[in-house]
């Protein structure tokens, strides 16, 4: 059977929050028995958008990570909660039972993604249902995917084999693969979230012009780990790195090679202008 | 429980389907198109076909609309200020403090009607001052140009003209360089998407963030166009003090000039082009007037100061070598200049000398061959294929007033709408009568004598903006009553403690506010009429189509859609539609029969709009009413007429633009300017100054770089207030619509920040260096202040701004002073308390909100 999967492209999310608001529109004040009880007016983020800026002015980028229940195939919440309080549907969606889970506040802490919220008034743990009630009515979009203007969030209704092929061919990735929870929510361009970059601007010192076409190589423990070429503004960027110490080398015809150690930080590193000297 | 019904509606943030059950809204979703709807267009370019997704998009405030419709801040009954007695003590100094009591509709209407009748007999009809907020609930019947204008024109008043608060510099500057007065200085955009897809190599977004500002009313319709262009390898450069959200998605390079210095950057780019031969000399020779004078100024031959990249670097702090690199790339690629979010607009034009920035944009585009293939002023926010021959009125065509006298629609449209009653206009609401000016409301309320140039939307001709106005107008009274519709101005105008204080310390003994929500200025009225949203009444509208000065602007959306705006639910509480409120008041004032034209309901008016429009030729009323919308397809084989191509090729105008008018052209050729060319030496300004004296802040020859009167060249001010604040239009709310009201937008992390006291604070963004210098951490509450006031905000520490600049969106929805109103910090986030009231130039009465120096300090929660 076709199952519920979601694919999120980090490079397309611009923090418009339509998804966050559509989720509120669907669930605040609306009971959807037997799937879910109403979400409280404030405080819950069943779809929680996190922000990450990388680099320093003026060479920066910004990424947003829409986080929701990952609808894990190997769900810690099911494993660590009282039997019957949380269940998995045939289409893969993981649902907190709005009656049986009442009073079980401990369920909130079973999710390593922090996707479960406590509804004080209803005395109930709650989270994204994957719009299960709408799926069962034949919808082909979740509320969040329907309002996403850039199609950063897409619902993929596919059989497991089909999905596995898509994961491979499109190199879809998990948000935190080390948790081994087999999430049904997968990402494109997750490096924008979990990797760092080295960026910089290169200048020819003798002419005080931006240095275009400079070969920039990055090494770690003597091993090349990345390279780039400066553009017509003298800018370069080597992405997909882990934070740490590197050696960066600049080569340009007619100019002395420049080699220097750099520390690439947790927030990525943008070097102030680098000046190359004439041979 | 009944089965839910799916109804339709239209908002400032997109068309929607509304699921309703048992009289309550269950959900609001983007309007869903189906296969039977009109076809989507296709553009073929560079070997590919581009067809927009068959869907509609929403803006955030529309996605959150259910929370504002059912907001606890809704006014559910008429209210009277507890210590207001129209026949006794009015206690106007207690406005904003003393609270309200519910009263009946009869009592409220009687009180207001009695005062209006008394004033008409004792002082004259102009004793009532009145105006609306800019953007109200969508529709042709309920919109402010419609139900409101009909009422006010019939009764008489002193109407307060709006300033052009999104495109100041284009009206006051652009008009004099290239005309387009019928668009208030902003260019036509016809078919420029096709042109860009076929021909453009680079975009320069200068003060433009279409992902946040949506063109206007067009939600996220344009995002797919930028994706197409990126897929074609079109490069995108951003010039903005803030790394804005469009940049975040698509920027290849970002430049952040120091606030107030964009013109210096522009002149340096021109300098490189002039000295390196990187401009279209032949085009300039045949399409411009006075270019050589301006060239001598740029090269420093006339003033001894060459506008070199090094000179510009000292002003804008962008390295000269990078300015050269930008100029060289721009000068060698077919480039679209996205000057402002809709091709026009842009925060840089809402600043001291904003006219010079708009002129700079026109100058740069002209030097590259404005109108030639791939080269124009175009932002991607509009210019899609659309059927412009299909007539359905935009809101500025006046709806049920059919009053087009405040818009360009008056020149073009035959009054074909109401064969019986005809248009309802009032000549008193124009130059021959008495009008006011929105940026001068406090002074009017203080009964000062005022003079200013121009009405706000001066589109009839280039010269119309030179007209001198005075208040009171000869033979007219000082105003005695304020009939306010909406409550936005504390959040949207300039130096807005003025507005607060005018309510409490001014000379207006009676204030009525007709409003949906209890917020902002509404809380300073004596009597409040509760209005309802457009989900609680009938209406009909064309998506993103203002008409008037926004001719054919439905070409912002990928599918032009006319929507039957259905009454989804009954008005909440005792609230009523604006039309019903006006009709009830007209009853007491003795003109209900004229106002309703013999008892028309809103649904009757909706049908009349339907019947006179071209819609009735395409679809029956029954079918339209059942489906709820109609998609207007693009006619097969419609010829593409790219904006200004006719000008570039020296042909008669072939675009459907309403201007230039025949009397400004010869044989259909030429721009609206006196010479018909792009004027670097402006004949209209020269003529004006010859008779009226020179305005040195708006020079005849331009654009020129003028050092801001509030910036790094004003050392005393700069020393005390070293941070320059940019306050663009907001991203998650539409002006004040959608902000606060206990709505879900408050929970958007990048909109407001919830603090320990339970209040959601507006955000001030600042560079980590500026934050560290002040001991400020991300999320801290800060006091942002200058001599004009203080606002308490939550700090967001970000690399998206250079040191020295701070960012906070304008248009906070509420006003929450921590102490005495008008004299204490506001914690709602009205950053316009801090912006200067000074006009962008003495003869250009625009708001210069982006020329604003402030200081920021950590807020300890006490002290004033």
Helix content of chain B: 25-40%
Report mean pLDDT of chain A, rounded to a whole number: 98
Unreliable spans of chain B? none
Largest interface: A-B, 45 and 53 residues
Number of helices of chain A: 6
The CATH topology of one domain in chain B turns out to be Rossmann fold
Q: Rough shape of chain A?
A: elongated
Tell me the Rg of chain A in angstroms: 23 Å
Largest beta-sheet details of chain B: 8 strands, mixed
Helix content of chain A: 10-25%
Q: How would you spell out the order of helices and strands of chain A?
A: EHEEHEEEEHHEHEHEEEEEEEEE
Q: Compute the number of structural domains of chain A.
A: 2
Mean pLDDT of chain B: 95
Proportion of strand residues of chain A: 35-45%
Oligomeric status: heterodimer
Descriptive tags:
A: 279 residues; mainly beta; five-stranded mixed beta sheet; four-stranded antiparallel beta sheet; 6 helices; B: 864 residues; alpha/beta; Rossmann fold; Dimethylsulfoxide Reductase, domain 2; Barwin-like endoglucanases; eight-stranded mixed beta sheet; six-stranded mixed β-barrel; 34 strands; globular
Write the layout of secondary structure elements.
The complex is a heterodimer of chains A (279) and B (864).
Chain A: E1 3-9, H1 18-27, E2 48-56, E3 59-67, H2 76-79, E4 86-88, E5 94-96, E6 117-119, E7 124-126, H3 132-135, H4 143-146, E8 153-158, H5 160-169, E9 185-188, H6 191-194, E10 196-204, E11 209-210, E12 215-220, E13 223-229, E14 235-241, E15 244-251, E16 258-264, E17 269-270, E18 274-276
Chain B: E1 5-11, E2 14-21, E3 24-30, E4 43-45, E5 48-50, H1 60-63, H2 65-69, E6 79-81, E7 100-102, H3 105-122, E8 128-132, H4 144-155, E9 158-161, H5 168-178, H6 192-199, E10 202-206, H7 210-213, H8 223-231, E11 235-239, H9 245-250, E12 253-255, H10 262-276, H11 281-287, E13 288-289, H12 291-298, H13 309-316, H14 320-332, E14 335-339, H15 354-367, E15 376-377, H16 409-412, E16 435-437, H17 441-445, E17 450-453, E18 468-471, E19 481-485, H18 489-492, H19 497-505, E20 510-515, E21 527-530, E22 539-542, E23 560-565, H20 578-589, H21 592-595, H22 602-612, H23 615-618, H24 621-627, E24 629-632, H25 645-648, E25 678-679, H26 683-692, H27 715-720, E26 723-726, E27 752-754, E28 760-766, H28 768-773, E29 781-786, E30 789-797, E31 805-807, E32 839-841, E33 844-847, E34 853-858
Parallel strand pairs in B: 8-9, 8-19, 9-16, 10-11, 10-14, 11-12, 13-25, 14-15, 19-20, 20-21, 26-31, 28-30
Antiparallel strand pairs in B: 1-2, 2-3, 4-5, 6-7, 6-21, 17-18, 22-23, 23-24, 26-34, 27-28, 28-31, 29-30, 29-34, 32-33
